[in-house]
């Protein structure tokens, strides 16, 4: 089953996708919300092109696995995406995904380490990886 992973952020939305069988994960794109007037519309175009069966959102929970202000914002955004795409939405705890993505990049050249868009793409990959492990 093809999955689309989303690392939602107020500044950028990182995207990753699996192959049609759901095995191989690759970073796909980043939607820069300051440069995009309608991030949901842009995401819907990507969904249409990629044709995933399920969309997986990373959900930022606190240290006690409780909802946060940001997790409620993610759920609202996901709800609008679900209404407009008619695809099933899943949530997975994204704890430390951005930190782990930054650690991966720490092995790269200095310029690449500062690429925040790459961090968001890798975080989306990690969200899909965690989802596959737990489902």
In short:
The chain is α/β, with parallel strands linked by helices and 135 residues long. It is built from five helices and five strands. It has a single domain (3-134), classed as YqgF/RNase H-like domain (Nucleotidyltransferase, domain 5), CATH 3.30.420.140.
CA-atom Rg in angstroms: 14 Å
- Gap between N and C termini: 12 Å
Q: Report the strand count.
A: 5
The tally of helices reads 5
User: Strand order within the widest sheet?
Assistant: 3-2-1-4-5
Question: CATH superfamily, called what?
Answer: YqgF/RNase H-like domain
Largest sheet: 5 strands, mixed
Could you characterize the architecture of this molecule?
Helix content is 45%, strand content 23%. The chain has 135 residues and is of the alpha/beta class. The protein has a single domain (3-134), classed as YqgF/RNase H-like domain (Nucleotidyltransferase, domain 5, 2-Layer Sandwich). Strand 1 and strand 2 (12-18) form a beta hairpin. The longest helix is centred in the last third of the chain and has 19 residues, at 116-134.
């Amino acid at each position: 089953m093809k999955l689309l992973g989303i690392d939602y952020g107020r500044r950028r939305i990182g995207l990753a996708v699996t192959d049609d069988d759901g095995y191989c994960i690759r970073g796909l794109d980043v939607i820069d919300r300051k440069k995009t007037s309608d991030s949901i519309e842009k995401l819907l175009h990507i969904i249409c092109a990629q044709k995933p069966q399920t969309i997986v959102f990373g959900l930022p929970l606190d240290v006690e696995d409780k909802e946060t202000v940001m997790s409620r914002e993610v759920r609202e955004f996901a709800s609008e995406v679900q209404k407009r795409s008619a695809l099933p939405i899943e949530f997975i705890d994204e704890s430390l995904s951005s930190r782990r993505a930054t650690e991966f990049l720490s092995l790269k050249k200095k310029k690449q380490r500062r690429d925040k868009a790459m961090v968001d793409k890798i975080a989306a990959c990690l969200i899909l990886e965690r989802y596959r492990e737990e489902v």
